[in-house]
Every structure is written in structure tokens, then in C-alpha cells.
Amino acid sequence: MTGIRKLQPSFALGAASAGGNAVRGRFTAQRWFFVPFIVSVAIIVYLFLGLLKGQALDEDYAVYLKEASNIAEGVSLKDMGVDYYVDPNLSLTMQGPLTYPPLLPALYALPVKIFGYDIAAFKTFNLFLLFLGLTIFSYAMPRWGFSVLETATSLIVFALAPEIHNSSNGVDSDLPFLFFLILAMLAVGKATRATPETRWLWGIVMGVAIFVATETRIVALVLLPTAWLVGLIRYRRVAGWEFITAAASFAILWGAEYLLIDRGPGYGVVSNYEFFTPFTNLRQFYWAMAHWWDSAPFPMGVVVLLLGLVALALVGIIYEAAQGTTAALFLICYTALLLVLPDFEAGARYLIPHILFF
Question: For 292, which DSSP code?
Fold first, then answer.
């Protein structure tokens, strides 16, 4: 008994010390938690200072701004009033999408009404949407198991990628899409972890969030199979209530939009391309990334390093996918989509989500 009593003070001191370390650890984690948010602000300032005058002459920005003007004026979305002929022997519907998903044009509608076609205003607005995307990314990453250091490093590498500088100087959906994408990914996580009583309700929220993301970029459709895989891997549910209600709410919203909004032919032109060309697509994406380093002192060394990092990232993605991590399963589904789709020779813009999570 005496020996036990003698050990008690030491044990109590150890417990107090452990408790103190835990408190200090939580305090340190909370203190460093804000670092990615500070990095996000710095990235937006950096990109804003790098904005250039004007806009590259492509049809995308013209379509977005014309759709925004139509929404502001109450005109039908399909009334584009823009004719461009790559091949005069083909109809317009065979040469490119006449309209794009309407969410970004709807967000542009008020600036169009106030400022007119002010390209600088839309670039600044896009950076604001990017800031929201990076902020919610900084919030989401710790919830997906990533550390503050990993999150901040991802943000820094993202900001230094030449493609991000290029996209920030254009009026398109690539950077604004990140906010709606990560918001939908968070909804997937919430719905798949919900209690049985609230699973159906969170499923509706997830379906709405995925629909909103597709209204920015149609490729967000891969979030539906992503949500299904999360439930299947994590809980062995072939079709849980959260997925059923998400799919139903998504289908209802999609059908209502189809009936209420006449958007014209949209992406029907894609059917004229050749699908399932994965090696051609991989080669195009490789060169889109590799050509950034043509002027580097040791370009081949940089490319080898890049490929090595991609290989390491692939190992991490496979490991996290096996745990049912939303971010990893999205990257797998999204990459599969890019390899199935035709080779549009779009450069690296389709890889922006990869760059963010790299």
C-alpha cells in the first residue's frame, strides 16, 4: 500500500503533464489553423497584382458575357446573337457549344448591368470567387485528414502554377468552379456521415449542392458517382438513403431546368468527337504541364521531378480512396472522365482541380 501511495503523486504529475501537453497541442493546432487562410489572402493579392489588360480572343468569354446580358435583360439564353464559323460548311451547333451552364452568367448578370462589358471587373469578380474557393478549401482539408502544412503547401504550389496565372487573366469558369466544387464535396462528406434519421435530409442537400456545381461546370456530374463510391467503400452501402435522395433531388432540379429554361443545343456538339482516347488525352495533358518548364535551367530534371511527385500523389490517392476519402475518390472519378472524354486540346485548364490537391 505504501508503494502504491508513493507512486500516486508521480502518476498524477504525469497525467497533469500529459493533459498540459494536450492543451498546448490543441492551442498550437488552433493557432496554426489560420495559416492556410492567410496564404489564401496572399494568393489573391498576388494574382490581382498580376492581372493583365484585355482578354484572349476566344469564344468562351463572349458566350459567358452574352448569357449574362441575356439574364440581366430577361432575354432567352439561346438568343446569343454571336456567329463564329470555324468551318463554314458546318452549322454552328456542330462547331461548339452555343451556351454554357448558366450559374456563372447569372452571377455575372448584375456586374454586366452595372459596369457593362468591363473585362477588368469580371476578372476581379472571378478572383473573389476564387478567394471563396480557397477559403473553403482551407476549411475542408483538415476535415479530410490533411495537416495545416499540407494544406498551405498545396495552396502555394497552386498559386505558382502558370496555368493559374493564365486562368486568372481570363473570363471563364475554371477558377470560380472550385468554390462550388469543394462546397459540394463537403456536402458529400456530411451526407455520408449523417445519422440514419437525418441521412435523407442531408442527401437532398448533397443533391442540390452537386446540381449547383454542375451549373458552373458540367464535369461536376462526376460528384454523383463519387458520392456513391464514398457510401459503398466506407459503409458497404450499395445505395443508401443519402444517395437515393441526392440522385432524386438532382434529377428533379435538372428536369425542372430543362423544362423551364431553353438553353439551346448546348453541348450537343460533343457527340461529333471521338470518345475513349485515354492515351491521346494523357499525352495532351502531359505536354500541357511539361511545356511550362521549357525555359527552366534543367527542364528534363524538372519534368522527372514532376512525374515522380505525380507517382507519389497517385499512391496517396489510392490509399485515401481505399478509406473512402471524398477528395481522393473525386480525383479518381474526375480523371477517369477526362480520359473518357474526347481530346479537346484544352491545355491544362481541366487539370486545375488536380493542381489544387497536388
Answer: G
